[in-house]
Design goal:
By secondary structure, this protein is of the alpha+beta class. It folds into 2 domains: 229 residues, Jelly Rolls; 167 residues, Jelly Rolls (Sandwich). The protein is 27% helix and 31% strand. It contains 11 helices and 27 strands. The strands form 5 sheets. The protein has a 7-stranded antiparallel sheet, with no helix packed on it. Strands 6, 8, 9, 11, 13 and 14 form a 6-stranded antiparallel sheet that branches. A 6-stranded antiparallel sheet has the order 16-17-18-25-20-23, with no helix packed on it. A hairpin with a 2-residue loop joins strand 8 and strand 9. Helix 3 crosses helix 6. The radius of gyration is 29 Å and the shape is elongated. The chain starts with a helix and ends in an 11-residue tail after the last strand.
Length: 455
């Protein structure tokens, strides 16, 4: 009996410890599950292939409603990669496109106010292509791969889908041209060519939406054609009609058919008049002056007041560079949803729910895409082993005024007073001491008390 009395307190202690352990495990499990769920919502790591050929690819992370939440992401982020000397064939989209040249150089041609606009793009350039405007992309470099990051609206008016749609003008069996959908008698009448010529014209292309512009005399000829200025292209088209003199009679007939249809599709006077077009030029994000800079990092942004074509797309762009260990101070974007793509380094993205709980505290690396809903507080923190650079889009082309919650000239500085002190349940002197402790603003230095493995 005495032994039982002795063991009973010990059993109770062990039982309480077990219950506490289980409760703690369940709490940590819920906390871990919450972090995982937040990463599923705010980190866009699932890349979907849109186009993939030997000459290049286009992949994207999808927007739309996040599974199991009320959150809606109104933008896809696309990644275009093109091998040296390749072409993304002519097409138009049902979504506005904002292009950012991450690496390499490109030549873009698109129809602007019924005229052909051609622009050379270099690393760091921004360029917009309106929905419904036919365009092509070309990587003319012989030794360098082209990489482009682009924003794509998901508010498709033509389909009502949460995905954008390409309409290829050029094409054959792969991809199919939109012309191929018409009845051949109707189309041959519209083009004023025979149905046999039309059939050959619509079945020659089999290499996919991104094609090499080298490897055969035929493709080299079109590479030279694309390199011409608009007012030289008509004369070049005349010269290349007979470029395959040694081809078989069947090949010559097919080649002539393609040239004949091309002459039909292109109005000669229109080509000559394209020299004087006034389509917008590209805008270099890298060559802009910084909007903010201190010894801990810098920011640059571009909106419709800086680059008017952004007004039609309704998107803004920005780039941020943080020195090792530094932080973009906790802030709120009251006017737009924000998207970010990590260009260099590693860091952490912290996002907070409206109820004051942590939504996400995720480590990110080069190539990761994240998004932050409007009004949600968030911050970006660079790892201590190198600089952290990220580029992104916002869903408003108007001048953005983020509200910083802490730091010099922050909301805490502006709101300090008896009301704000009462909200925290502390005295005004203590509140003043806390709000004045940070002398930096916007980009803050790392804390010496923060362990290196925190980020």
């Amino acid at each position: 009996m005495g032994n039982i009395r002795t063991l009973l307190p010990l059993v109770l202690v062990l039982f309480c410890a077990l219950v506490a352990s289980v409760c703690g495990y369940e709490y940590e499990g819920r906390k871990s599950e919450q972090r995982t769920q937040g990463e599923k919502w705010f980190l866009l790591r699932q890349l979907h292939n849109v186009v993939k050929t030997d000459a290049g690819s286009m992949r994207m992370v999808k927007g739309g409603y996040r599974a199991g939440s009320f959150l809606h992401s109104p933008m896809h982020i696309g990644f275009i990669s093109m091998e040296p000397n390749s072409l993304f064939i002519p097409q138009y989209l049902d979504s506005d496109l904002v292009l950012f040249v991450h690496h390499g150089e490109a030549r873009v041609g698109h129809v602007y106010r019924d005229e052909l606009a051609e622009r050379s793009l270099k690393q760091g350039d921004i360029y917009t292509i309106p929905a419904g405007s036919a365009f092509y992309l070309e990587n003319r470099n012989e030794n360098q791969r082209l990489r482009i990051i682009c924003s794509i609206d998901i508010t498709s008016e033509s389909m009502g889908w949460h995905a954008f749609q390409s309409f290829f003008i050029g094409g054959g069996t792969h991809p199919a041209s939109v012309l191929a959908g018409f009845d051949h008698t109707t189309l041959s009448t519209a083009l004023n060519v025979s149905t046999e010529e039309l059939k050959t014209f619509l079945t020659r292309q089999t290499s996919g939406p991104i094609v090499h512009l080298s490897g055969s005399h035929h493709t080299n000829t079109w590479s030279e054609f694309l390199a011409q200025e608009p007012h030289h292209k008509l004369a070049h088209l005349k010269r290349i009609v007979n470029f395959e003199e040694e081809a078989s009679s069947k090949q010559e007939e097919s080649t002539w058919s393609m040239r004949k249809i091309l002459f039909t599709l292109l109005n000669r006077e229109d080509i000559v008049n394209r020299v004087g077009h006034r389509a917008p030029s590209a805008c270099s994000l890298y060559n802009r002056n910084t909007d903010f800079k201190n010894e801990y990092g810098w920011t640059k942004k571009l909106d419709e007041s800086d680059y008017s074509p952004l007004k039609q797309s309704g998107h803004g762009v920005y780039i941020v560079n943080l020195s090792p260990g530094s932080m973009m101070a906790p802030h709120v974007n009251p006017t737009a949803i924000e998207y970010g793509v990590v260009l260099k380094g590693t860091g952490r993205i912290q996002i907070v729910y409206p109820n004051g709980t942590l939504a996400m505290n995720a480590r990110v690396r080069e190539g990761d895409v994240f998004w932050v809903p409007r009004y949600f507080p968030f911050c970006q923190i660079a790892s201590t082993n190198g600089p952290f650079e990220f580029f992104g889009f916002t869903t408003s082309a108007r001048r953005n005024h983020p509200q910083f919650l802490v730091g010099r000239n922050s909301l805490m500085q502006r709101l300090r007073g008896p009301e704000f002190a009462a909200a925290f349940g502390i005295g005004e002197k203590r509140l003043k001491r806390i709000t004045n402790a940070q002398h930096e603003q916007i980009i803050l230095p790392s804390s010496s008390s923060t362990p290196g493995d925190m980020v």
